[in-house]
Design a protein that fits this description.
Layout: H1 2-9, E1 12-16, H2 22-32, H3 41-50, E2 55-61, E3 87-98, H4 105-108, E4 117-125, H5 134-151, E5 164-169, H6 174-178, E6 183-187, E7 198-203
Parallel strand pairs: 4-5
Antiparallel strand pairs: 1-2, 2-3, 3-4, 5-7, 6-7
């Protein structure tokens, strides 16, 4: 609870990541994930182009940072853009759409525009802001964002609504996702890197 409260004390803002800001997410991706697990810049660009509404950035409002907060990272989204000049990208969640109840290598490496499930690829927070509850706050914001997308779907087209959110996690991060409502399905058949993955699911209202 203390970590969550610390995150609440940070002046955070959540915005969709634009094409111009994708390289900034890549800089965090390769810093925080092992080389065997990190997405390539090309993959991140593809995901932003294919599903821009599923790429959410977490920004620190630098003009409201208190003296006891960590020093901002050098990721200034766009110093020439007044909308982002006071914002610092410190984390993000990126997904694509898939079909079915389980993730596979094939479904995770593509995007199905008509898919009814969200496949989360990365939940990443810059190291300077880790262990402050930012990931939990970001996940809650993301799930609310997805529910908002569902709420905006025309009532006459229920088939276009998202039904579930799927992800694979290492054993030591299962608690993080369970804490925001994800249920453990079991060990995943997906192999990526040396450590085993576990599949989890969150059911959206529809």
């Amino acid at each position: 609870m203390a970590d969550v409260n610390r995150a609440k004390s940070l002046p955070l803002e959540f915005k969709l990541v634009s094409a111009e800001q994708v390289p900034l997410t890549y800089a965090i991706e390769i810093q925080e994930y092992p080389e065997s697990e990190a997405a390539s810049l090309e993959n991140l660009i593809f995901r932003q182009e294919a599903a821009p509404k599923l790429f959410l950035g977490c920004y620190l409002r630098k003009d409201e940072v208190q003296d006891d907060s960590p020093s901002p990272t050098p990721n200034n989204p766009n110093s020439g853009n007044t909308e982002f000049s006071s914002l610092e990208l410190i984390g993000y969640i990126v997904s694509t759409l898939v079909s079915g109840d389980h993730l596979t290598h094939s479904s995770m490496s593509s995007h199905n525009p008509s898919g009814d499930a969200v496949c989360i690829h990365s939940v990443c927070v810059s190291s300077a802001f880790q262990r402050r509850g930012v990931a939990t706050r970001m996940l809650k914001e993301y799930l609310q964002h997805l529910q908002g997308l569902n709420n905006n779907v025309n009532a006459s087209s229920p088939s276009n609504k998202l039904k579930r959110v799927l992800l694979i996690a290492h054993e030591h991060t299962i608690g993080l996702y369970a804490g925001v409502g994800f249920a453990l399905i079991g060990k995943s058949a997906v192999e990526h890197g040396p450590d085993p993955w576990f599949e989890m699911v969150y059911t959206l209202d529809h």
